[in-house]
Each structure stands twice: as structure tokens, then as C-alpha cells.
Amino acid sequence: MYCILFYVFQVAIQCLETTFKISPDDTHLAVSQPLTDIFLNALFKIDSLSNAKISPSPEDAEKAEQLKNEGNNHMKEENYTSAVECYTKAIDLDLKNAVYYCNRAAAHSKLGNYTEARSDCERAIEIDPTYSKAYGRMGLALTAMNKYTDAITYFKKALVLDPDNDTYKSNLKVAEQKQKEASSPVSC
């Protein structure tokens, strides 16, 4: 079903581009999020809402936890693609576990897939708004995307939830420094 919807969406994008004579290269028309991301996030939210009442069976929950641990081992081995696959399988078994999304976000970040990491962090935060690690990982993904103001906001939220976390403090300082560097005029 998702493939069909995604294909229809791609056709719709092509129609809009042709009709209005625009392309992804028209940076002056840029929005905060690509249309594909907006579509996938909306689709995912609709799907997750329809499954919100579904809890995993004890067997599925146990299997999901095993897959998470397998993914964690892949992360230690720096085999990030396999980690993403394990976390995705865990998510398929338990849609409401914020840790699985957050772990997959970490793997996506290691692969340079920051948009996917951001989406996973958003989902983790939706599931558990008190999960500081999701805010911290969101900050890292946003920093990598040069969205320093947003990154700073997320690092500050992480620190509200976990005020003694030195990693969040350090990452906040890095994002603030990068924001200063990006906004200061370059001297010739």
C-alpha cells in the first residue's frame, strides 16, 4: 500500500513541477521540509493513529527487544545499515516503543541520513515526550543539517529533562558556536 501511495505522490510532484514550471533546484521557493518528508510524516502519523490501540503480543515484544539488542551490537561494530534493519524490524513488531525509533535515528545519523533520523526522533518524542535521548539525537541531526537554531532548542529541551547530562551540554555549546560562526560576517 505504501509503495502505491508513494508512487502516486511522486506523480503528483511531477505534475506540480510541470504545471508551475518549478524544480527542486528553485531554492528561492524552498520550504522548511521537502514535500516528500511532509507526505511521509503525514502518512506515518495516519498509519500510527490507526494502529495506536494495537499492543504487541508478549512474543512480539520479546522478539522486538532481541532485534533492538542485535541492532545495538551492529552499532558497536559500526555496521549501521544492519542496525537500521534490526531497529526497523523491532518497530514493525512494536510501533509504540520510543527507544526503537531513537536507536534507529542514531543509526541513520551515522549513515548521514539526517532527514530519516529527524523523522525517527519526532516519532520517539510523540510516543514519549519525556525521553531526553530523543531530543538530544534530534539536536545532533539538526546540527548536521545546519539547522542550528532548532538544534539549540532541542538540546535545551534535552537538558530540561536531564540537566546533569554533560553530552547535551557539550553538544549545545557546539551548536551555539556553529550558529555564531554561520551568522557572523566573513572578513576578507
UniProtKB/TrEMBL annotation:
<dbReference type="Pfam" id="PF07719">
    <property type="entry name" value="TPR_2"/>
</dbReference>
<dbReference type="GO" id="GO:0072380">
    <property type="term" value="C:TRC complex"/>
</dbReference>
<protein>
    <submittedName>
        <fullName>SGTB protein</fullName>
    </submittedName>
</protein>
<dbReference type="Pfam" id="PF00515">
    <property type="entry name" value="TPR_1"/>
</dbReference>
<dbReference type="GO" id="GO:0016020">
    <property type="term" value="C:membrane"/>
</dbReference>
<dbReference type="InterPro" id="IPR011990">
    <property type="entry name" value="TPR-like_helical_dom_sf"/>
</dbReference>
<dbReference type="InterPro" id="IPR013105">
    <property type="entry name" value="TPR_2"/>
</dbReference>
<keyword id="KW-0677">Repeat</keyword>
<feature type="repeat" description="TPR">
    <location>
        <begin position="98"/>
        <end position="131"/>
    </location>
</feature>
<feature type="repeat" description="TPR">
    <location>
        <begin position="64"/>
        <end position="97"/>
    </location>
</feature>
<keyword id="KW-0802">TPR repeat</keyword>
<dbReference type="InterPro" id="IPR019734">
    <property type="entry name" value="TPR_rpt"/>
</dbReference>
<dbReference type="GO" id="GO:0006620">
    <property type="term" value="P:post-translational protein targeting to endoplasmic reticulum membrane"/>
</dbReference>
<dbReference type="GO" id="GO:0060090">
    <property type="term" value="F:molecular adaptor activity"/>
</dbReference>
<dbReference type="InterPro" id="IPR047150">
    <property type="entry name" value="SGT"/>
</dbReference>
<feature type="repeat" description="TPR">
    <location>
        <begin position="132"/>
        <end position="165"/>
    </location>
</feature>
